[in-house]
Specification:
The chain is about 40% helix and about 10% strand. By secondary structure, the chain is of the alpha+beta class. α5 crosses α6, α9 (about 155-160) crosses α10 (about 170-180) and α9 (about 155-160) crosses α11. Bound molecules: iron/sulfur cluster.
Amino acid sequence: MSVESPRQKVPPQGDADVPARLLGWYDRNARSLPWRAPPGAAPPDPYRTWLSEIMLQQTTVPVVIPYFEQFLARWPTVEALAAADTQELMAAWAGLGYYARARRLQLCARNVCLAGGFPQTAAGLGALPGIGPYTAAAIASIAFGEVVAVVDGNVERVVARLFAVADPPPALTRQARAILQPLVPSARPGDFAQAMMDLGALVCRPRSPQCSACPLADICEARRLGIADRLPARAERPARRVAQGTAWWIEVDGRVGLERRPSRGLLGDMPGLPGTDWRQDMDFALPFPGAWKRAAEPVRHSFTHLDLKLHVAAIRLSDRPAFPRDLAWAGAGELKGLPSLYRKVATRARALLED
Ligand code: SF4
C-alpha cells in the first residue's frame, strides 16, 4: 500500500496534549469490564488483570466475560488457581480455544506462588510462562503503574492512523511502542493504556472509524490525509496448512470412549475422541471392522495456522471393543467438557446413530 505522507514520529501539534485529552475522554467513556478498576481508582488486583489478559489473547471481550467470572468464582486467587485440578481447569477453559494457554496459565500461577507474588515490572512479568511482551506491559502498566507503552491490535491501529505509519506489523508494532513510550503519563499509565485500547475498540474501529467522536481528531494525520480506512497496512499472512483425519465415536451402553490428546501439538492434553493422526496425506480410516456409520461430510475446524477436515465414524456396540489404546468411558455430562472441535464431532455422530 502506498501512503503519500512522510511518516510522522511525533504528534503534529505537540505531545503534551495527547495524554490529557485521552484521559479526559476515558474518564467519560471507559468500558466497564469485570477485571477493571474504574478510571482514576486504585489499580485492580494483578491476578484479575493477568487472568483477563491471558483469556483475551486471540479471543473477544464478550466471549471472555463469562469465563472470567466463572474462573474468578471458582479460583478467586492465584494460589487457588495454582492448586486447581489441572483437568478441571482444562475443562473450564473449553471453548476459549488455544489450550496450550490454559496449561501455561497454571504453570505461570505456580511460578508466581513460588516467587511469593507477581513481578511488578514488564521485564519480570515477561519471564513468566505464557506472558509475551504485550501482556507483560499491560499487567505492569495496569496493575503496577509502570510507565510503559502497551501496544495491542487496537492500540496499533490508533497509532498507525494518528501518526500515519505506513508499515505493516511487525514493524508497526515496534514503531507504535517507540512513538507511545514518551507519551505515557507517569500519573496514570494504566488508565492511559486502557484509554488507548478503548479508543481503538469504540471509536477508531477497524472499519468506519468514528472520527467525529474522536478526542484526537484534529491532530490525526490519517484523517487529515483522508487515508484512515487504508491504515494499518496488512501484514502478509503465512500460508495456512490443511490436514485431515478421522475421529471415532465408539458408544457402549450410553458411554463413549475418550482418550487424552498428546501433550505436544494441537489441543495438547485435552480430552478428545480417539482417531487417526491429522495429516495432509491422511485418509478416512477405521480402527476395527464393524457396523460403522460414516458422516457424509467431514467436520471442518480452523486452528490458528491449520484448517482441519475431520471425518466422523460412529458405532454403537454392546461390549467394549479390543482397542489398541486405553480409553476412558465417558457419560453425557463429561462430554460437555470436550473442546469445541469434539463437541461438533459429537453432534454429528449422535445424528448419525439416530438415523
Ligand atoms: Fe482514528 Fe479517526 Fe481518531 Fe484518527 S481521528 S485516531 S482515524 S478515530
